[in-house]
Amino acid sequence: MKEQAKLAVLIDADNAQSVNIDGLLDEVAKYGVASIKRIYGDWTSTQLRSWKDKLLEYAIQPIQQFSYTKGKNSTDSAMIIDAMDLLYSEKLDGFCIVSSDSDFTRLAARLRESGKIVYGFGETKTPRAFVAVCDKFVFTEILGHQEMDEDKPTVRARKDLTVDSKLMRLLSDSVDDVADETGWAYLGGVGQKINNRSSEFDPRNYGFKKLGDLFRAIPQFEIEERQSENGSGRQVYIKAK
Questions:
Q1: Superfamily of segment(s) 158-240
Q2: Cα dist from 12 to 83, 98, 106, whole Å
Q3: Residues 4-39: b if buried by 16+ CB within 10 A, e if exposed
Q4: Quick one: which of 35, 53, 36, 30 has its CA closest to 195?
Q5: Which residues pair with 123 in a beta bridge?
Q6: pLDDT tens string for the chain (241 positions)?
Q7: Within 10 A of 222 (CB to CB), how many other CB atoms are there?
Q8: Could you give the CA distance from residue 155 to residue 209 in angstroms, rounded to a whole number?
Q9: Which of these, 214, 224, 235, lies nearest to 182 by C-alpha position?
């Protein structure tokens, strides 16, 4: 059995919503084990009251950082220093940075330079620079809408899906990268190419639980299911029309 990645989850309490913590930790579990869970903020402030009930429930360690100067975010500095300490003192495979603040852009870049995987979690307002520097960035707005039956695919009507030129180019180019001489591309390989090109891409951003469901809703693509070579299941292939 493959060993799971060990991850540190670092949460900026000033720039993250407590209502999303259930979905956020479920999402983190897809990538590995949250070996360290810490949240940073001024816990003497009433503004963080909504977080306090969540700390014990999810075993998140609060890190106190007083706001010494009004208008200055000392929480960011404490979180950055802690992340660098963890980089050198713990055997971690990656970091999950939970914030919509661009101040963590350089931190994410530095962690990646050290060979660590960086997952970012923030709202859609998160500055593009921080989103782009992460290996994977998940918009937290989609995390509160995961109450779906896992046995039923999420399918939206094609007329409800807006496919802009940027999305179409991303999908088409990724299919082309993987396609064989007949034009068919294995969905798993296409998904990897998409992630390499766009850290923030997620089919849930468009209302679909799975990538295959998104492709099925776009008339410019054909979908074909084939029996896997070892006979253990079926594989999905994509082709541009």
A1: LOTUS domain-like (3.30.420.610)
A2: 12, 6, 15
A3: eeebbbbbbbbbbbbebbebbbebbeebbebbbbbb
A4: 30
A5: none
A6: 668 999 999 999 988 989 999 999 999 999 999 999 999 998 888 888 899 889 989 999 999 887 655 544 677 888 999 999 999 999 999 999 999 999 999 999 999 999 999 999 999 999 999 999 999 999 999 986 544 444 444 444 444 577 788 999 999 999 999 999 999 999 999 999 999 999 999 999 999 999 999 999 999 999 999 887 776 788 999 999 8
A7: 14
A8: 8
A9: 224
Phi-psi region of 198 (alpha: psi -120 to 50; beta: other; left: phi over 0): beta
The CATH number, out of the four listed (1.10.1740.10, 3.30.70.3270, 2.60.40.10, 3.40.50.1010), of the domain defined by the range 6-142: 3.40.50.1010
Measured between alpha carbons, how far is 90 from 158 in angstroms, rounded to an integer? 48
Closest Cα to residue 105, out of 126, 89, 78?
126
Q: CA dist 64 to 54, 67, 81, Å? A: 16, 10, 13
Radius of gyration for the alpha carbons in the chain, expressed in angstroms and rounded = 20
